[in-house]
């Protein structure tokens, strides 16, 4: 009997609402100018970059890591995003309300050592942010804020994936139709690397992440990683979780109360762009660094904002990994375009700096790629203050990193066409919803790959914006990006037929070919899909570090 892999396509920039039995009352209207003035009143680089608390996902027994169980809750509390901003009400992860943080604690797991986590919901009866009942969402009958946790980039059994339909309220008082267990098991069988966990409930993702339900998850294997010689230890190996936010003058997190087309969606808007850039929960922080190498694991947790990152002192990024995997060899990049939900693992050598300070800045238009240019606020990210090293730097960047299975496009057993199409309001031209191949998230699955196989997906973006494509329980790599010719004709046909082959895609996908950046030629779980292009991705439904099947599918299919 063939096991089927259930895929979830996550397009964070289009997920829309929060939950509760009714939306919170709207405050007085606020203008973009007012939000900019609030953000502009905050002095940059006065708060030190926080080191998020760490939770070990294993215990040491007889000198070896062993499995454990953790209980992590979701709480409402106050959080200071800036020295001069009143504390904000947030939803955050932690082992207790007192220790919960924005972002949540970094979970450090050991490769090959399973971890069980019971996720507890202690959130209040009503959400702190607005939501829109006209968008499909989890609305409990008796109130409460539905949540469910997804480990982004994890290879784990479907019942531990955090399906959007597996939501639950406080005390498991109400549960969604796909809910099955309060405890998730993460095998941690995949390659060492950086992941992140976040809320994933139906229709809540945007609001719940905006409120603070996110955190980092790092898988380590000292036997494999130590010989590489990369910077290590809490001081020199840092996670940077980027998130844009706007604030009211009282410190409350701003989220729109009026929709882009109020007569269709009273509250929903397709994108959220904040005026302030936070890193690890602080607006425009600083980090004191020594003249030596540092490793930064950069995670973009924003709703829709892309970051095109660079350092003002001209130092390059040496990219050693992306998403949950290493590259086969380091790649030097002067700038780094990071899409929503994407991660990059980089090394910066501050010993080569000609200055004593360097700003990390952002030049990505919003929406990307043809929106507004960043301003003096959202064009800044954080600052590094550089001082002499107190000890010799013994770290290095090796010429060779880790090898994984070959792309091997010729091994594909199936070629699929995945088309993103934005539906618009005839009166205003504004978007009302986005479907994939004309299907809603709630519709039955049409794409059912087999575990252990390789497929080729031709992903076509007929929307105006770049979109991050994320697949659950799959690893993939972009191999080609080809422009569309006579796009309007193809779009018109797709609006009628929703079938790329019948719409003669081979005649349209013959435009300019754009090279995939060298530092993105690795096994990823997020790939940027450019507007007006067809991006070819090779998808593997097995462990790319070993070529072996997912261990839980072996258990499931073995008599």
Model description:
By secondary structure, the chain is mainly β. It folds into three domains: 44-224, Cupredoxins -  blue copper proteins (Immunoglobulin-like, Sandwich), CATH 2.60.40; 237-390, Cupredoxins -  blue copper proteins (Immunoglobulin-like, Sandwich), CATH 2.60.40; 409-541, Cupredoxins -  blue copper proteins (Immunoglobulin-like, Sandwich). 8% of the residues lie in helices and 33% in strands. The chain has helices at residues 32-40, 205-211, 222-225, 487-497, 505-508, 551-557, and strands at 54-56, 59-61, 64-66, 68-79, 88-94, 104-110, 115-121, 149-152, 183-186, 193-199, 214-220, 237-245, 276-279, 282-283, 286-290, 293-300, 307-311, 317-322, 325-333, 336-338, 343-349, 357-362, 380-387, 415-424, 431-436, 454-461, 467-470, 475-483, 513-514, 526-529, 533-540. A seven-stranded mixed sheet has the order 14-13-12-16-21-18-19. The chain starts with 31 loop residues before the first helix and ends with a helix. 50% of the residues are buried.
